[in-house]
C-alpha cells in the first residue's frame, strides 16, 4: 500500500502542511484523522481551515459531533469520539457527499459508515513536540493528491 510520511517538530509546521493540503481539496473529499488525544488532529484541522480561508476559530466539536464552517469550500468537522460505537445511521453520508470537505477525528469509530475512498492521516506523538504524520490514500483521487502534496 502506498503511504507517505512527514515529520513535524512544532504545531505550526503541522498546521502549515495541512494548509498546503487544503489548497488542493475538492468538494466531497473525506479526510479521516487518527491518533491519540493530543496527537494533533484538531491542530491539523485548524491548519486545513486556514488553508480554506475560514475566518472563524475551529475548536474540537467533541460535544456537538459536527461543526460546519464557511470558507473557500465548506468544512465539515466531525469528532466522533463520543459517538463511540453507535451503529445507528447518524446521517453522515449527507456530509460525505456534500459540497464541502469532511474531516473526521477518531474516524475508525465509524468505520462502517465511512466512504471506501478517503485519505486517512495517522498522527503519532513522538518525543516532545515531534509528530509523525502518515498519509494513507484509498482510491486514485487520494493517491494523486498525496503525490502532489509530497512532490
Ligand atoms: P487532538 O485533536 O489529536 O487531541 P490537538 O490538536 O487538540 O490534538 O492537540 C495537540 C497538542 O499538541 C496541541 O496543544 C499542540 O499545540 C501540541 N503540539 C505540539 N507539537 C505539535 C506538532 N508537531 N503538531 C501538532 N500539534 C503539536
Ligand atoms: Mg481533537
Q: What's the short version?
A:
This protein has 151 residues and is an alpha/beta fold. It has helices at 11-22, 41-51, 93-96, 140-149; strands at residues 4-8, 30-34, 66-69, 75-79, 101-105, 118-125, 131-138.
What does this structure look like?
The radius of gyration is 14 Å and the shape is globular. The chain has helices at 11-22, 41-51, 93-96, 140-149; strands at residues 4-8, 30-34, 66-69, 75-79, 101-105, 118-125, 131-138. The longest helix is centred in the N-terminal third of the chain and has 12 residues, at 11-22. Strands 1-7-6-2-5-4-3 form a seven-stranded mixed beta sheet. By secondary structure, the protein is α/β, with parallel strands linked by helices. The two termini are 18 Å apart. It has a single domain, classed as Rossmann fold. Bound molecules: adenosine-5'-diphosphate (ADP) and magnesium ion. Magnesium ion is lined by residues 41-42, 60, 79, 105.
Helix and strand arrangement:
Elements: E1 4-8, H1 11-22, E2 30-34, H2 41-51, E3 66-69, E4 75-79, H3 93-96, E5 101-105, E6 118-125, E7 131-138, H4 140-149
Helix pairs in contact: 1-2
Amino acid at each position: 500500500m502506498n503511504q507517505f510520511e512527514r515529520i513535524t517538530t512544532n504545531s505550526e509546521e503541522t498546521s502549515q502542511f495541512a494548509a498546503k493540503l487544503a489548497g488542493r481539496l475538492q468538494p466531497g473529499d473525506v479526510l479521516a484523522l487518527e491518533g491519540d488525544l493530543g496527537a494533533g488532529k484538531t491542530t491539523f484541522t485548524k491548519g486545513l481551515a486556514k488553508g480554506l480561508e475560514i475566518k472563524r476559530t475551529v475548536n474540537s466539536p467533541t460535544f456537538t459531533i459536527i461543526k460546519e464552517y464557511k470558507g473557500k469550500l465548506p468544512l465539515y468537522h466531525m469528532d466522533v469520539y463520543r459517538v463511540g460505537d453507535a451503529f445507528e445511521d447518524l446521517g453522515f453520508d449527507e456530509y460525505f457527499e456534500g459540497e464541502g470537505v469532511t474531516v473526521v477525528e477518531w474516524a475508525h469509530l465509524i468505520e462502517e459508515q465511512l466512504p471506501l475512498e478517503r485519505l486517512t492521516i495517522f498522527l503519532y506523538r513522538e518525543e516532545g513536540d515531534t509528530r509523525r504524520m502518515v498519509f494513507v490514500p484509498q482510491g486514485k483521487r487520494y493517491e494523486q493528491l498525496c503525490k502532489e502534496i509530497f512532490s
